């Protein structure tokens, strides 16, 4: 029944609202982005499947606009170059698709967002290792457990759920809050 799924989504949002540690980590991720953008750095995003769509959506909110008509910020979803992605997957294996691009694009001080509902996607884990070597601040957006990824990153935004659709809805909620707060801090309130 749709009512049950709506109630489940609301329950996850209530759990997010009650998790002060999670909201504090969201604030840390926001502050990291503000610092990065003020220093001329960039935010890179990677994810698979629905998380790739979420990564692209959040990158677009930063690089385009959220509420304010303002200068663009350097934010990019790393899967949008399909020629690169398919060539690397073919030549090196899909586990290296994001790590290879991270090595090429990331610079010290950049923020690397790693979206994985399980926290165990091999290519996302490899990107985290490459991002750490590059000197990035690593922000994972996962489900409740954080998976292996939770142990590799600087900031863990783990949605209190083990249900993939509810996790992804939580990622978008907190991702939108982050984008709005980054925009307000850099450019003023709408």
From TrEMBL:
Segments forming domain SIS: 33-190
Chain residues that bind Zn(2+): 57, 61, 168, 176
Reaction catalysis annotation: 2 D-sedoheptulose 7-phosphate = D-glycero-alpha-D-manno-heptose 7-phosphate + D-glycero-beta-D-manno-heptose 7-phosphate
Domain of life of the native organism: Bacteria
Primary residence: cytoplasm
GO MF annotations in UniProt: isomerase activity
Pathway noted in the entry: Carbohydrate biosynthesis; D-glycero-D-manno-heptose 7-phosphate biosynthesis; D-glycero-alpha-D-manno-heptose 7-phosphate and D-glycero-beta-D-manno-heptose 7-phosphate from sedoheptulose 7-phosphate: step 1/1
Requisite cofactors: Zn(2+)
Subcellular location: Cytoplasm
InterPro entries associated with the record: GmhA/DiaA, Phosphoheptose_Isoase, SIS_dom, SIS_dom_sf, SIS_GmhA/DiaA_subfam
UniProt: substrate binding residues: 48-50, 61, 90-91, 116-118, 121, 168
Co-factor remark: Binds 1 zinc ion per subunit.
Keyword Zinc in record: yes
The protein's Enzyme Commission number: 5.3.1.28
Keywords: Carbohydrate metabolism, Cytoplasm, Isomerase, Metal-binding, Zinc
Family label: Belongs to the SIS family. GmhA subfamily.
Role summary: Catalyzes the isomerization of sedoheptulose 7-phosphate in D-glycero-D-manno-heptose 7-phosphate.
Cross-referenced PANTHER family: DNAA INITIATOR-ASSOCIATING PROTEIN DIAA, SEDOHEPTULOSE 7-PHOSPHATE ISOMERASE / DNAA INITIATOR-ASSOCIATING FACTOR FOR REPLICATION INITIATION
Note: The reaction produces a racemic mixture of D-glycero-alpha-D-manno-heptose 7-phosphate and D-glycero-beta-D-manno-heptose 7-phosphate.
Protein name: Phosphoheptose isomerase
Species of provenance: Neolewinella maritima
């Amino acid at each position: 029944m749709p009512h049950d799924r709506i109630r489940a989504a609301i329950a996850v949002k209530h759990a997010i609202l009650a998790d002060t540690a999670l909201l504090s980590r969201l604030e840390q991720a926001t502050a990291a982005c503000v610092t990065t953008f003020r220093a001329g750095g960039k935010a890179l995003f990677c994810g698979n499947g629905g998380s790739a769509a979420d990564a692209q959506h959040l990158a677009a909110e930063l690089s385009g606009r959220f509420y304010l008509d303002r200068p663009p910020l350097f934010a990019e979803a790393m899967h949008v170059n399909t020629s690169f992605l398919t060539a690397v997957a073919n030549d090196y294996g899909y586990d290296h698709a994001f790590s290879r691009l991270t090595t090429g694009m990331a610079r010290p001080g950049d923020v690397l967002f790693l979206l994985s509902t399980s926290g165990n996607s091999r290519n996302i884990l490899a990107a985290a290792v490459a991002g750490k070597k590059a000197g990035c601040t690593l922000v994972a957006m996962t489900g409740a457990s954080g998976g292996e990824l939770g142990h590799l990153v600087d900031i863990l935004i783990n949605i209190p759920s083990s249900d993939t659709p509810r996790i992804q809805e939580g990622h978008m909620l907190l991702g939108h809050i982050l984008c709005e707060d980054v925009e307000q801090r850099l450019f003023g309130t709408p």
